[in-house]
Hints:
Blueprint: H1 6-10, H2 17-20, E1 26-32, E2 35-40, E3 42-49, E4 52-56, H3 64-71, E5 79-83, E6 107-111, H4 114-123, H5 125-135, H6 140-144, E7 160-162, E8 165-170, E9 173-179, E10 188-192, E11 197-201, H7 221-233, E12 238-241, H8 251-277, H9 283-289, H10 307-319, H11 334-345, H12 348-360, H13 364-377, H14 382-398, H15 402-416
Helix pairs in contact: 7-8, 8-10, 11-12, 11-13, 12-13, 12-14, 13-14, 14-15
Amino acid sequence: MPANRTDQFATMxxxxxxxxxxxxxxxxxxxxxxxxxxxxxxxxxxxxxDQGLLLVDTGMSILAPTLAGMLxxxxxxxxxxxxxxxxxxxxxYGLGAFLVEGQAxxxxxxxxxxPGRFGRYxxxxxxxxxxxxxxxxxxxEHARRRSLQTFxxxxxxxxxxxxxxxxxxxxxxxxxxxxxxxxxxxxxWVYNPERGVLCPGDLFIWGVPNAGNPQKAQRYPWDWAxxxxxMAACEPRxxxxxxxxxxxxxxxxxxxxxxxxASYLESIVEQTIAALExxxxxxxxxxxxxxxxxxxxxxxxxxxxxxxxxxRNVIRYYGGWWSGRPSELKPAPRAAVxxxxxxxxxxxxxxxxxAREIAASGDPALACHLADYALEAKPEDARVxxxxxxxxxxRSASEPALMTQNLFRSAAAYAxxxxxxx
Length: 422
Protein backbone atom coordinates (compact mmCIF):
# COMPACT_ATOMS: atom_id res chain seq x y z
CA MET A 1 0.00 0.00 0.00
CA PRO A 2 1.59 3.32 -1.02
CA ALA A 3 2.56 5.47 1.95
CA ASN A 4 0.29 8.37 1.03
CA ARG A 5 -2.80 6.20 1.39
CA THR A 6 -1.97 4.22 4.51
CA ASP A 7 -3.58 6.92 6.65
CA GLN A 8 -7.00 6.19 5.18
CA PHE A 9 -6.68 2.49 5.92
CA ALA A 10 -5.12 2.99 9.35
CA THR A 11 -8.07 5.05 10.53
CA MET A 12 -10.30 2.05 9.81
CA UNK A 13 -8.41 -0.44 11.96
CA UNK A 14 -10.42 -1.72 14.89
CA UNK A 15 -13.72 -0.57 13.45
CA UNK A 16 -16.59 -2.92 12.75
CA UNK A 17 -17.26 -4.12 9.19
CA UNK A 18 -20.33 -1.89 9.10
CA UNK A 19 -18.32 1.21 10.05
CA UNK A 20 -15.32 0.60 7.84
CA UNK A 21 -16.94 -1.04 4.80
CA UNK A 22 -14.47 -1.19 1.88
CA UNK A 23 -11.51 -0.34 4.12
CA UNK A 24 -12.20 -2.81 6.91
CA UNK A 25 -9.26 -4.81 8.24
CA UNK A 26 -9.75 -7.54 10.82
CA UNK A 27 -10.64 -11.09 11.68
CA UNK A 28 -10.93 -13.92 12.08
CA UNK A 29 -14.72 -13.71 12.05
CA UNK A 30 -16.66 -16.96 12.16
CA UNK A 31 -19.21 -16.68 9.35
CA UNK A 32 -20.46 -20.27 9.66
CA UNK A 33 -19.45 -23.43 11.45
CA UNK A 34 -15.66 -23.91 11.12
CA UNK A 35 -15.53 -21.11 8.53
CA UNK A 36 -13.58 -17.89 9.08
CA UNK A 37 -13.14 -14.64 7.20
CA UNK A 38 -10.20 -12.26 7.62
CA UNK A 39 -9.21 -9.15 5.70
CA UNK A 40 -6.09 -7.06 5.25
CA UNK A 41 -6.81 -4.86 2.23
CA UNK A 42 -8.44 -7.90 0.59
CA UNK A 43 -10.24 -10.82 2.18
CA UNK A 44 -9.57 -14.54 2.61
CA UNK A 45 -12.24 -17.10 3.54
CA UNK A 46 -11.21 -20.41 5.11
CA UNK A 47 -13.47 -23.46 5.29
CA UNK A 48 -12.19 -26.11 7.68
CA UNK A 49 -13.12 -29.61 6.52
CA ASP A 50 -12.23 -33.13 7.57
CA GLN A 51 -9.60 -33.18 4.79
CA GLY A 52 -8.06 -29.81 5.62
CA LEU A 53 -8.70 -26.19 4.70
CA LEU A 54 -10.25 -24.85 1.56
CA LEU A 55 -9.20 -21.22 1.03
CA VAL A 56 -10.98 -18.74 -1.21
CA ASP A 57 -8.30 -16.17 -2.11
CA THR A 58 -4.99 -15.73 -0.34
CA GLY A 59 -4.31 -11.99 -0.35
CA MET A 60 -1.31 -9.96 -1.45
CA SER A 61 2.09 -11.53 -0.86
CA ILE A 62 3.22 -8.74 1.48
CA LEU A 63 0.01 -8.93 3.55
CA ALA A 64 -0.62 -12.69 3.45
CA PRO A 65 1.39 -13.37 6.65
CA THR A 66 -1.01 -11.06 8.49
CA LEU A 67 -4.01 -12.89 7.06
CA ALA A 68 -2.50 -16.29 7.84
CA GLY A 69 -1.70 -15.18 11.37
CA MET A 70 -5.35 -14.26 11.92
CA LEU A 71 -6.56 -17.60 10.59
CA UNK A 72 -4.07 -19.62 12.61
CA UNK A 73 -5.63 -18.28 15.79
CA UNK A 74 -8.52 -20.63 15.00
CA UNK A 75 -7.10 -23.63 13.16
CA UNK A 76 -3.79 -25.33 12.45
CA UNK A 77 -5.20 -27.53 9.69
CA UNK A 78 -3.18 -27.84 6.46
CA UNK A 79 -4.42 -26.32 3.24
CA UNK A 80 -6.05 -28.93 1.03
CA UNK A 81 -7.41 -26.65 -1.76
CA UNK A 82 -7.16 -22.99 -2.70
CA UNK A 83 -9.44 -21.19 -5.12
CA UNK A 84 -8.33 -17.91 -6.67
CA UNK A 85 -11.37 -15.79 -7.53
CA UNK A 86 -9.20 -13.90 -10.04
CA UNK A 87 -5.57 -13.24 -10.83
CA UNK A 88 -5.10 -9.78 -9.30
CA UNK A 89 -2.08 -9.40 -7.04
CA UNK A 90 -4.20 -8.82 -3.93
CA UNK A 91 -6.06 -12.14 -4.30
CA UNK A 92 -3.81 -14.81 -5.80
CA TYR A 93 -0.30 -14.21 -4.50
CA GLY A 94 -0.24 -15.10 -0.80
CA LEU A 95 -0.83 -18.86 -0.58
CA GLY A 96 2.66 -19.69 0.65
CA ALA A 97 2.03 -17.92 3.96
CA PHE A 98 -0.88 -20.24 4.78
CA LEU A 99 0.95 -23.54 4.25
CA VAL A 100 2.02 -25.53 7.29
CA GLU A 101 5.40 -27.22 7.55
CA GLY A 102 5.54 -30.59 5.86
CA GLN A 103 2.11 -30.44 4.28
CA ALA A 104 1.42 -31.76 0.79
CA UNK A 105 1.15 -29.26 -2.04
CA UNK A 106 -2.46 -28.08 -2.17
CA UNK A 107 -4.65 -28.17 -5.23
CA UNK A 108 -5.04 -24.64 -6.64
CA UNK A 109 -8.03 -23.83 -8.83
CA UNK A 110 -8.57 -20.89 -11.17
CA UNK A 111 -10.47 -20.02 -14.30
CA UNK A 112 -9.11 -21.00 -17.69
CA UNK A 113 -8.32 -17.36 -18.54
CA UNK A 114 -6.01 -16.90 -15.55
CA PRO A 115 -2.73 -18.03 -17.15
CA GLY A 116 -3.31 -15.46 -19.90
CA ARG A 117 -3.54 -12.75 -17.24
CA PHE A 118 -0.27 -13.81 -15.68
CA GLY A 119 1.29 -13.88 -19.13
CA ARG A 120 0.22 -10.27 -19.70
CA TYR A 121 1.78 -9.27 -16.39
CA UNK A 122 5.07 -10.88 -17.38
CA UNK A 123 4.96 -9.18 -20.77
CA UNK A 124 4.25 -5.68 -19.40
CA UNK A 125 5.61 -5.36 -15.83
CA UNK A 126 6.77 -1.77 -16.33
CA UNK A 127 3.42 -0.69 -17.73
CA UNK A 128 1.50 -2.32 -14.88
CA UNK A 129 3.80 -0.86 -12.24
CA UNK A 130 3.37 2.61 -13.78
CA UNK A 131 -0.43 2.54 -13.98
CA UNK A 132 -0.67 1.19 -10.44
CA UNK A 133 1.62 3.98 -9.24
CA UNK A 134 -0.75 6.53 -10.78
CA UNK A 135 -3.79 4.72 -9.41
CA UNK A 136 -2.42 5.24 -5.90
CA UNK A 137 -1.31 8.82 -6.40
CA UNK A 138 2.28 8.49 -7.65
CA UNK A 139 4.22 8.81 -10.90
CA UNK A 140 6.14 6.49 -13.20
CA GLU A 141 9.32 7.42 -11.31
CA HIS A 142 7.76 6.03 -8.14
CA ALA A 143 7.10 2.77 -9.96
CA ARG A 144 10.65 2.56 -11.29
CA ARG A 145 12.04 2.87 -7.79
CA ARG A 146 9.97 -0.13 -6.73
CA SER A 147 10.52 -3.76 -7.62
CA LEU A 148 8.57 -5.01 -10.63
CA GLN A 149 8.48 -8.54 -9.24
CA THR A 150 4.81 -8.16 -8.30
CA PHE A 151 3.84 -8.41 -11.96
CA UNK A 152 4.74 -12.01 -12.58
CA UNK A 153 3.08 -15.36 -11.99
CA UNK A 154 2.30 -16.16 -8.35
CA UNK A 155 4.70 -18.43 -6.49
CA UNK A 156 1.94 -21.05 -6.24
CA UNK A 157 0.00 -20.78 -9.51
CA UNK A 158 -3.20 -22.70 -10.30
CA UNK A 159 -2.83 -26.31 -11.39
CA UNK A 160 -6.54 -26.97 -12.03
CA UNK A 161 -8.67 -24.96 -14.45
CA UNK A 162 -12.31 -24.86 -15.46
CA UNK A 163 -14.47 -23.07 -18.06
CA UNK A 164 -17.97 -22.09 -16.86
CA UNK A 165 -18.95 -24.26 -13.88
CA UNK A 166 -17.14 -26.62 -11.56
CA UNK A 167 -18.37 -28.46 -8.45
CA UNK A 168 -15.81 -30.01 -6.12
CA UNK A 169 -16.04 -31.87 -2.81
CA UNK A 170 -13.57 -31.43 0.02
CA UNK A 171 -14.06 -33.20 3.34
CA UNK A 172 -17.74 -33.85 2.70
CA UNK A 173 -18.50 -30.24 1.71
CA UNK A 174 -19.57 -29.15 -1.76
CA UNK A 175 -18.14 -26.01 -3.38
CA UNK A 176 -19.74 -24.57 -6.49
CA UNK A 177 -17.48 -22.47 -8.72
CA UNK A 178 -19.06 -20.13 -11.27
CA UNK A 179 -17.26 -18.13 -13.92
CA UNK A 180 -18.48 -14.53 -14.25
CA UNK A 181 -16.75 -11.89 -16.31
CA UNK A 182 -16.83 -8.75 -14.20
CA UNK A 183 -13.84 -6.85 -12.88
CA UNK A 184 -11.76 -9.37 -14.84
CA UNK A 185 -12.30 -11.95 -17.56
CA UNK A 186 -11.04 -14.73 -15.24
CA UNK A 187 -13.37 -14.09 -12.31
CA UNK A 188 -14.92 -16.83 -10.17
CA TRP A 189 -17.53 -16.71 -7.43
CA VAL A 190 -17.83 -19.57 -4.98
CA TYR A 191 -20.81 -20.89 -3.02
CA ASN A 192 -20.85 -23.54 -0.29
CA PRO A 193 -24.47 -24.68 0.17
CA GLU A 194 -23.98 -26.72 3.38
CA ARG A 195 -22.82 -23.68 5.33
CA GLY A 196 -24.64 -21.11 3.21
CA VAL A 197 -21.50 -19.04 2.55
CA LEU A 198 -21.02 -16.98 -0.61
CA CYS A 199 -17.56 -15.76 -1.66
CA PRO A 200 -18.05 -13.30 -4.55
CA GLY A 201 -14.45 -12.14 -4.81
CA ASP A 202 -14.34 -8.60 -6.18
CA LEU A 203 -17.84 -8.93 -7.60
CA PHE A 204 -18.83 -7.34 -4.29
CA ILE A 205 -16.54 -4.81 -2.52
CA TRP A 206 -18.73 -2.54 -0.34
CA GLY A 207 -18.73 0.21 -2.95
CA VAL A 208 -19.71 1.09 -6.49
CA PRO A 209 -18.44 -1.92 -8.47
CA ASN A 210 -14.92 -1.54 -9.81
CA ALA A 211 -16.25 -1.89 -13.34
CA GLY A 212 -14.71 1.25 -14.79
CA ASN A 213 -11.05 1.64 -13.81
CA PRO A 214 -9.73 3.97 -16.56
CA GLN A 215 -6.27 2.41 -16.86
CA LYS A 216 -7.08 -1.29 -16.76
CA ALA A 217 -8.26 -3.95 -19.19
CA GLN A 218 -11.87 -4.28 -20.37
CA ARG A 219 -14.51 -4.91 -17.69
CA TYR A 220 -17.95 -6.43 -18.11
CA PRO A 221 -20.73 -4.79 -16.06
CA TRP A 222 -23.53 -6.60 -17.97
CA ASP A 223 -22.16 -10.06 -17.13
CA TRP A 224 -21.39 -8.78 -13.63
CA ALA A 225 -25.05 -7.88 -13.05
CA UNK A 226 -26.20 -11.30 -14.27
CA UNK A 227 -23.72 -12.97 -11.93
CA UNK A 228 -25.01 -11.00 -8.96
CA UNK A 229 -28.52 -12.22 -9.72
CA UNK A 230 -27.27 -15.81 -9.89
CA MET A 231 -25.61 -15.37 -6.50
CA ALA A 232 -28.83 -14.01 -5.02
CA ALA A 233 -30.70 -17.07 -6.32
CA CYS A 234 -28.48 -19.25 -4.12
CA GLU A 235 -30.00 -17.50 -1.08
CA PRO A 236 -26.73 -17.33 0.89
CA ARG A 237 -26.84 -16.81 4.65
CA UNK A 238 -23.38 -15.20 4.89
CA UNK A 239 -21.30 -13.19 2.42
CA UNK A 240 -17.50 -12.85 2.43
CA UNK A 241 -16.51 -10.05 0.01
CA UNK A 242 -13.33 -9.34 -1.89
CA UNK A 243 -12.86 -6.12 0.11
CA UNK A 244 -14.49 -5.00 3.32
CA UNK A 245 -16.13 -6.92 6.11
CA UNK A 246 -18.46 -9.94 5.95
CA UNK A 247 -22.22 -10.08 6.40
CA UNK A 248 -23.05 -12.95 8.74
CA UNK A 249 -26.39 -14.76 9.03
CA UNK A 250 -28.42 -12.02 7.38
CA UNK A 251 -29.86 -13.52 4.17
CA UNK A 252 -32.43 -10.78 3.62
CA UNK A 253 -29.81 -8.07 3.67
CA UNK A 254 -27.51 -10.04 1.38
CA UNK A 255 -30.35 -10.39 -1.13
CA UNK A 256 -30.86 -6.65 -1.12
CA UNK A 257 -27.14 -5.95 -1.49
CA UNK A 258 -26.71 -8.28 -4.46
CA UNK A 259 -29.90 -7.33 -6.31
CA UNK A 260 -29.56 -3.60 -5.78
CA UNK A 261 -26.00 -3.71 -7.10
CA ALA A 262 -27.17 -5.70 -10.13
CA SER A 263 -29.88 -3.12 -10.86
CA TYR A 264 -27.34 -0.31 -10.53
CA LEU A 265 -25.08 -1.84 -13.16
CA GLU A 266 -27.98 -2.73 -15.46
CA SER A 267 -29.24 0.85 -15.44
CA ILE A 268 -25.85 2.22 -16.49
CA VAL A 269 -25.39 -0.42 -19.19
CA GLU A 270 -28.86 0.00 -20.70
CA GLN A 271 -28.69 3.79 -20.75
CA THR A 272 -25.25 3.70 -22.40
CA ILE A 273 -26.30 1.25 -25.09
CA ALA A 274 -29.41 3.34 -25.76
CA ALA A 275 -27.21 6.41 -26.24
CA LEU A 276 -24.97 4.50 -28.66
CA GLU A 277 -28.05 3.37 -30.58
CA UNK A 278 -29.31 6.96 -30.84
CA UNK A 279 -26.72 7.97 -33.43
CA UNK A 280 -23.54 7.13 -31.47
CA UNK A 281 -22.46 10.70 -30.61
CA UNK A 282 -18.92 11.48 -29.40
CA UNK A 283 -18.09 9.49 -26.30
CA UNK A 284 -17.89 12.40 -23.88
CA UNK A 285 -21.40 13.46 -24.91
CA UNK A 286 -22.69 9.96 -24.11
CA UNK A 287 -21.05 10.09 -20.69
CA UNK A 288 -22.73 13.42 -19.92
CA UNK A 289 -26.13 12.06 -20.97
CA UNK A 290 -26.23 9.13 -18.54
CA UNK A 291 -28.19 9.53 -15.31
CA UNK A 292 -26.18 7.68 -12.69
CA UNK A 293 -28.49 5.82 -10.27
CA UNK A 294 -28.52 7.36 -6.81
CA UNK A 295 -28.41 5.22 -3.69
CA UNK A 296 -28.08 5.81 0.02
CA UNK A 297 -27.01 2.21 0.55
CA UNK A 298 -23.54 1.88 2.09
CA UNK A 299 -22.60 -0.76 -0.48
CA UNK A 300 -23.23 1.57 -3.45
CA UNK A 301 -21.12 4.59 -2.57
CA UNK A 302 -18.24 5.65 -4.88
CA UNK A 303 -15.50 4.90 -2.38
CA UNK A 304 -13.11 3.37 -4.93
CA UNK A 305 -14.33 3.42 -8.55
CA UNK A 306 -16.41 6.11 -10.24
CA UNK A 307 -19.70 5.37 -12.03
CA UNK A 308 -18.71 7.66 -14.92
CA UNK A 309 -15.84 5.27 -15.62
CA UNK A 310 -18.30 2.36 -15.87
CA UNK A 311 -20.09 4.23 -18.68
CA ARG A 312 -16.80 4.59 -20.51
CA ASN A 313 -16.08 0.87 -20.19
CA VAL A 314 -19.41 0.03 -21.82
CA ILE A 315 -18.60 2.47 -24.63
CA ARG A 316 -15.13 0.95 -25.05
CA TYR A 317 -16.56 -2.55 -25.47
CA TYR A 318 -19.18 -1.55 -28.04
CA GLY A 319 -17.64 1.56 -29.53
CA GLY A 320 -13.93 1.15 -30.19
CA TRP A 321 -11.06 3.43 -29.25
CA TRP A 322 -11.89 6.58 -31.23
CA SER A 323 -13.58 9.30 -29.15
CA GLY A 324 -15.83 10.40 -32.02
CA ARG A 325 -14.25 13.88 -32.32
CA PRO A 326 -12.92 14.30 -35.90
CA SER A 327 -9.71 16.06 -34.82
CA GLU A 328 -8.86 13.13 -32.55
CA LEU A 329 -8.93 10.51 -35.30
CA LYS A 330 -5.41 11.37 -36.50
CA PRO A 331 -4.41 14.16 -34.10
CA ALA A 332 -1.50 16.56 -34.18
CA PRO A 333 1.17 16.10 -31.51
CA ARG A 334 -0.39 17.11 -28.23
CA ALA A 335 2.53 19.38 -27.30
CA ALA A 336 2.07 21.32 -30.54
CA VAL A 337 -1.63 21.85 -29.83
CA UNK A 338 -0.78 22.96 -26.29
CA UNK A 339 1.80 25.49 -27.49
CA UNK A 340 -0.64 26.97 -30.01
CA UNK A 341 -3.40 27.35 -27.43
CA UNK A 342 -0.96 28.87 -24.94
CA UNK A 343 0.19 31.32 -27.61
CA UNK A 344 -3.40 32.41 -28.24
CA UNK A 345 -3.88 32.90 -24.50
CA UNK A 346 -0.77 35.05 -24.11
CA UNK A 347 1.56 32.33 -22.87
CA UNK A 348 1.52 29.25 -20.68
CA UNK A 349 1.45 31.22 -17.43
CA UNK A 350 -1.52 33.28 -18.62
CA UNK A 351 -3.32 30.09 -19.64
CA UNK A 352 -2.62 28.53 -16.23
CA UNK A 353 -3.86 31.67 -14.48
CA UNK A 354 -7.05 31.56 -16.53
CA ALA A 355 -7.49 27.93 -15.51
CA ARG A 356 -7.23 28.98 -11.87
CA GLU A 357 -9.87 31.69 -12.39
CA ILE A 358 -12.27 29.20 -13.97
CA ALA A 359 -11.74 26.75 -11.12
CA ALA A 360 -12.47 29.50 -8.61
CA SER A 361 -15.72 30.26 -10.45
CA GLY A 362 -16.90 26.69 -9.86
CA ASP A 363 -15.94 24.75 -13.01
CA PRO A 364 -12.90 22.62 -12.12
CA ALA A 365 -13.43 20.23 -15.06
CA LEU A 366 -13.06 23.03 -17.61
CA ALA A 367 -10.19 24.53 -15.64
CA CYS A 368 -8.26 21.27 -15.81
CA HIS A 369 -8.48 21.19 -19.62
CA LEU A 370 -6.69 24.54 -19.75
CA ALA A 371 -4.28 23.49 -17.02
CA ASP A 372 -3.22 20.44 -19.03
CA TYR A 373 -2.48 22.58 -22.08
CA ALA A 374 -0.53 25.08 -19.99
CA LEU A 375 1.67 22.39 -18.48
CA GLU A 376 2.21 20.61 -21.78
CA ALA A 377 3.08 23.88 -23.51
CA LYS A 378 5.79 24.77 -20.99
CA PRO A 379 6.42 21.99 -18.45
CA GLU A 380 9.71 23.51 -17.32
CA ASP A 381 8.03 26.68 -16.00
CA ALA A 382 7.85 26.41 -12.20
CA ARG A 383 4.98 28.90 -11.99
CA VAL A 384 2.86 26.85 -14.39
CA UNK A 385 3.67 23.68 -12.48
CA UNK A 386 2.63 25.14 -9.14
CA UNK A 387 -0.67 26.44 -10.47
CA UNK A 388 -1.52 23.17 -12.20
CA UNK A 389 -0.49 21.08 -9.19
CA UNK A 390 -2.67 23.18 -6.88
CA UNK A 391 -5.66 22.78 -9.22
CA UNK A 392 -5.34 19.00 -9.28
CA UNK A 393 -4.81 18.78 -5.54
CA UNK A 394 -8.00 20.78 -4.99
CA ARG A 395 -9.89 18.62 -7.46
CA SER A 396 -8.59 15.46 -5.81
CA ALA A 397 -9.88 16.64 -2.45
CA SER A 398 -13.36 17.21 -3.88
CA GLU A 399 -13.78 13.69 -5.32
CA PRO A 400 -15.38 10.83 -3.32
CA ALA A 401 -13.83 7.89 -5.22
CA LEU A 402 -10.35 6.82 -4.13
CA MET A 403 -9.33 6.00 -7.69
CA THR A 404 -10.33 9.45 -8.96
CA GLN A 405 -8.66 11.15 -6.01
CA ASN A 406 -5.41 9.34 -6.63
CA LEU A 407 -5.28 9.88 -10.39
CA PHE A 408 -5.73 13.61 -9.80
CA ARG A 409 -3.11 13.45 -7.04
CA SER A 410 -0.79 11.77 -9.52
CA ALA A 411 -1.42 14.61 -11.97
CA ALA A 412 -0.39 17.08 -9.27
CA ALA A 413 2.81 15.12 -8.64
CA TYR A 414 3.69 15.29 -12.33
CA ALA A 415 3.07 19.03 -12.41
CA UNK A 416 5.30 19.63 -9.40
CA UNK A 417 8.05 17.58 -11.04
CA UNK A 418 7.79 19.95 -14.04
CA UNK A 419 6.77 17.19 -16.39
CA UNK A 420 3.68 16.77 -18.54
CA UNK A 421 1.47 13.82 -17.72
CA UNK A 422 3.23 10.74 -19.00
